[in-house]
Backbone:
């Protein structure tokens, strides 16, 4: 009997079965480890660090003004979900600043406004896959709700078109999909050498680029006069403000409004620092010195 048991343990069939079992155990352990490792990174998602300028806020010092922040006008929650002609995708929307201290940072990293970062699959460039509301610093860095981290998307590593948008500027998209991974990738929309999708997609000089300003009515075009122009809404808003009892064209309406084209916290129709004048100035100096009517180039 003992010999029979001993022989069965040393039988080649038994040894082969044990080898297969060990090998399966090893494979299972490796698979579990791989899943855990993947989840660890996938939890954080792919990371992108866009850089962009808004023409309406950009000064000659290469920084954007942060008057909305310094005047206490920035909303704690992103404004995009409430906008007409705007939709969030893939879990985006409802982002709120991590702490009131985020709006207390001064200098180059002070917050200018809320923006939106959007990703599109390399196989479907016309369809948004995921959006995320984010914060824009004075020096152009687009950061997460904590005021400094890169933007995270719950997506797998791969190639994506990157889009950036602002509530009264025209959005832009990269001409080619970008390799995005679990480590941060910089996508610099201020760099005049980075190809963008479309023609005259943004204001461009040999030294920098900035998103076209002035789409106060959110129709993806900047129009100074005639049908569907971006100035009439501003005019009526100023005239119809209840506090403007004398219907003055020079009334200064203070607040967080899409009609505040230069983002200084005031909607001004007529007089010093008025908002329509920045649309007219852009029109004159628009496409390489030739006047053009900017139209959003995102497919
Ligand atoms: Ca910065
Ligand atoms: Ca418009
Ligand atoms: Ca203004």
Residues:
């Amino acid at each position: 009997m003992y010999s029979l048991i001993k022989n069965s343990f040393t039988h080649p069939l038994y040894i082969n079965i044990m080898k297969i079992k060990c090998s399966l155990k090893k494979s299972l352990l490796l698979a579990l480890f791989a899943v855990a490792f993947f989840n660890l990174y996938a939890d954080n998602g792919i990371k992108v660090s866009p850089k962009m300028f808004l023409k309406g806020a950009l000064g000659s010092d290469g920084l954007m003004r942060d008057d909305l922040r310094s005047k206490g006008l920035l909303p704690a929650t992103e404004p995009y979900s409430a906008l007409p002609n705007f939709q969030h995708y893939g879990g985006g929307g409802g982002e709120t600043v991590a702490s009131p201290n985020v709006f207390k940072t001064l200098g180059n990293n002070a917050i200018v406004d809320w923006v939106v970062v959007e990703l599109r699959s390399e196989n479907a460039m016309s369809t948004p896959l995921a959006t995320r509301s984010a914060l824009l610093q004075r020096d152009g860095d687009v950061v997460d709700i904590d005021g400094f981290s890169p933007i995270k998307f719950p997506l797998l590593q791969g190639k994506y078109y990157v889009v950036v948008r602002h509530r009264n500027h025209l959005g832009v998209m990269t001409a080619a999909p970008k390799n995005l991974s679990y480590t941060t990738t910089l996508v610099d929309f201020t760099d005049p050498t980075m190809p963008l999708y479309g023609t005259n997609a943004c204001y461009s000089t040999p030294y920098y680029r900035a998103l076209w300003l002035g789409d106060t009515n959110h129709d993806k075009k900047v129009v100074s006069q005639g049908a569907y122009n971006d100035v009439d809404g501003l005019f009526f808003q100023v005239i119809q403000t209840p506090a403007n009892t004398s219907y003055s064209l020079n009334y200064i309406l203070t607040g967080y409004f899409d009609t505040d084209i230069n983002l200084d916290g005031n909607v001004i129709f007529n007089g010093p620092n008025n908002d329509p004048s920045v649309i007219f100035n852009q029109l004159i100096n628009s496409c390489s010195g030739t006047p053009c009517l900017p139209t959003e180039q995102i497919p």
